[in-house]
């Protein structure tokens, strides 16, 4: 993997962590690593083990394919901007509810 790919993984991990209102210390406890390791992963100077990646995906209900490759599971999702896909994958109920309201309004205005 290239440095850019590790950077994107770290960014997705940080986005998911923040959207779940967790600190690096709290995520470190969940994954049984140090907060410094979380920081290194998010800044792409280190990476999680396979076991830690699986635990992360299970904990935050995100797909491994999305976390590692940024792939969207659905062909329709691949047509959406990355920011919207991030919202859909982050499990942040408030942001998802807001996106839903915006989409409902958009549909209503275009009907």
Task: Give a short summary of the structure.
This protein is mainly α and about 110 residues long. About 70% of the residues lie in helices and about 0% in strands. Helix 2 packs across helix 3.
Report what the structure shows.
The chain is an all-alpha fold and 111 residues long. Helix content is 68%, strand content 0%. It has seven helices and no strands. Helix 2 (24-31) packs across helix 3 (35-42). The longest helix is centred in the N-terminal third of the chain and has 17 residues, at 3-19. The mean pLDDT is 86.
- Tally of helical runs: 7
Determine the structural class based on helices, strands and strand pairing: mainly alpha
Largest sheet: none
Strand percent estimate: under 5%
Highlighted features:
7 helices, 111 residues, elongated
List the helices and strands and how they pair.
Blueprint: H1 3-19, H2 24-31, H3 35-42, H4 50-60, H5 64-69, H6 82-90, H7 93-109
Helix pairs in contact: 2-3
